[in-house]
Amino acid sequence: MSDMPCLETHALCKSFGALQVIQNVELTLAVGERRALIGPNGAGKTTLINLLAGRLRPDSGSIVMGGTEITALTEAGRARAGLARTFQINSLFRNLTVFENIFLAVSERLGTAHSILRPALAEEEAVALSEELMRDLGLAADARLVVQQLPYGHQRLVEIAIALALKPKVLLLDEPAAGVPAGESGVILELIEALPKDITVLLIDHDMDVVFRFASRITVLAQGMILAEGAPDDIARDPRVREVYLGKGRHG
Amino acid sequence: MSAPDRAVPSARSVFGRLAFGVKPWEALPWAVAIACFFLFPGYVPLFGQIVIMTLFALSLDIVVGYAGIVTLGHAALYGTGAYASGILAVHGWTEPISNALCASLFAALAGFITGAVVLRAHGFIVVMLTLAVTVTFYEIANHTGQWTGGDDGLRGIDMSPVLGRFEFDIYGDTAFFYGLAVLFVAFVFVRLLVNSPFGWSLKGIRENLGRMHAIGCPVYWRLLQAYTIAAGLAGLAGALQAQTTQYVALRALSFDLSGDVLIMLIIGGIGRLYGAFIGVPIYLLAQDKLSAQDPANWYFWMGIMLIVIVLFARGGLLALAARLTELVRRRWR
Amino acid sequence: MGDWSVLVSIAFLGFAYGMVLYLISVGLSVTMGLMGFVNLAHGVFAMAGGYATVTLMNRYGVPFFAALAGAFVIVALLGLVLERTLYARLYGTSDFDQVLFSIGLIFVSMAVARHFWGPLTQPMLVPAYLKGAITIFGRDFPAYRVFLIALSVVIITILWLTLEHSRFGALVRAAVDNRRMAQSLGVNTGRLFAQTFALGSGLAGLGGGLGADILVIAPGYPIQYILYFMIVVILGGLGTIRGPFLAALLLGVADTACRYFWPQIGAVFIFLLVFIILFFRPQGLLHRGRA
To answer: Out of 2.30.30, 1.20.140, 1.20.1550, 1.10.3470, which CATH number does the structure's domain C2-280 have?
Structure first.
């Protein structure tokens, strides 16, 4: 069981018209692994996340999670199977409160979201789990605030909270601290480090400090292909990786 | 909608669930309705109409206001309920409550089937499909005159007394209270629905469809569920219409009626549960007073009003009221 | 032998019908693709063109061609005014708002039509030289329909050439393809939208006048025919001008055939067909892969 990879892709390909955005990507993540995905702008990182999450369909290749092929599953199906993701730009329910944002995800996971028979606030289990999650992420004080009114750093926490509410086996984090002012990003980074060890995490980020602090293994993507993959120190020393970043700005 | 400090134990009983979060002023519409019955006896038939249309508009609110599905075809479901009720009655099924429930189920089925097709599309194609549904149902009813009476309409609907005691008469008293009772039960149900996890997920779908997919929500089925329930309620309203006016016309399946009920709802405001209760009486009372001479004139002003509302008063009267209370609240601090 | 004749008749009438549908719908396709506006009220412009043509001819004795040209100009102006004063305020708003606005406009136009022209269908008085039949390959065809097809082909050819080779056409195609890019390249999108809307409305008015005996002119016009225009646009592909041509011809022939062979439910048949198509391909038939 511990030998079986948690998430794999085989020969994954995706083109937009004539442009081949993802070429034959082979990825294998072990259970509980902390993998970082880095690469210059336009390398296809977000496209890869979208393929994994089910927002895009690959042209060819397959995706396997926990030994089961999930290539044919929809985005929602994959979420129900235990794959959660966050978005680089917040995708929240802006006019709903923090509590409601998290509750929606919790109730989907519990399978009670279709229920008409009881007021939402009387769903004891869902309410309790939502409150617990808010406490864990330090959002308890914001519970009744509409997301739109929150500072960006807190909104980002809600973004992650929604993904965590799904109790995922695999968590895809797309630049979790992106756009967050420096003073507030510490909370997010601590949160990521404190994630349960049984969740497999794939993290995209441009900040090399974050990447090296967090990842046990790094995959470098360039022009839709895996350029290099290995332990952080090896990647740091790899001349090809340096070349691919040479002369290009670090911000995206 | 906000987080309580702990889950509320009183919601364990059925009554607790149904009355969850009830505020005192929520008794107002019902008190007003009953008061009007005694204060303006000459208008009781009109009040009966208002009650029926409120139920219709309430069902539309579920689709448009909560599920966020833009439909021009809600009359198709209303008319299906009306014709189902009428046809059943003409063929001997005259017990009102069971007749209404049966017609409502029939409309829910029609809603399920049409919704299954319509909801596969996205964007403006959905609107077009709902319009096509309405036109299709209309044409079918028009061409099956042996069942529906065609152009002349369906007559000969003679219902038995409600609960065996209350006869339908020309004064409309029974019709009014019967309709009001049905509306009350339906409203309690809708209120429960709107505050349930299901209702919350509809708001989520309206707010951010993509995120709902990403959290595992089976959006298509959730919306279909909402659409079917709303269809059943619309059909229930149609059945009430057939039963109380003893007549069903093709207009019950028309785009015109779809547009009318949409306007009634918009006046009050969508997605706020009580929009129907505000918009419908205003529309019907105004229509009663103003459109006696020239119906074409009425549609002219309705069109103007729609355009004005869209440009300047989005969200209807309830939104306006909400904005005003917010302003007042701020001044008061 | 008789069956063959019937099929030719149906094809011929269907073609004429399809041409009219195309003339009216092409403007809708372009403006929906360009402004992203759900203009359910498009039929209003076709109806206005029909009323303008008929009124110019019947009440003011304007000759047929001049009446058509007049209808084009009048409706184009109407479109321009409405676009600048009303439509432009609603670009980018929700589908729901746009639908509501369109319904409002439909109601207003229907009421105006009923008020000034009454509830009955306007008779189309075809000029004498276009009456009767023309013999082609030994077969009689209604002269007016032949003329209609011929004139439509001319207009459509001019339209296509204009859109392919003029600067205006290039701007429209660019903006449909990528509005933001066009804006950042300095294209005055406001003026482009206005011109395109005016042209599309004018063509719709022309189609309405030309096709007044196929799509009859009565106050209920905008609601009665909007589905057909929408079907043409959806099947043909939003924002394109050739796809809708094929779609219009197909729809014209199919609808004519359905009404002939199954007069009872003919009208409904088309919609059922459309349902089935959209069930399997919710994004449209000749759709060219845009989201």
So the answer is: 1.10.3470
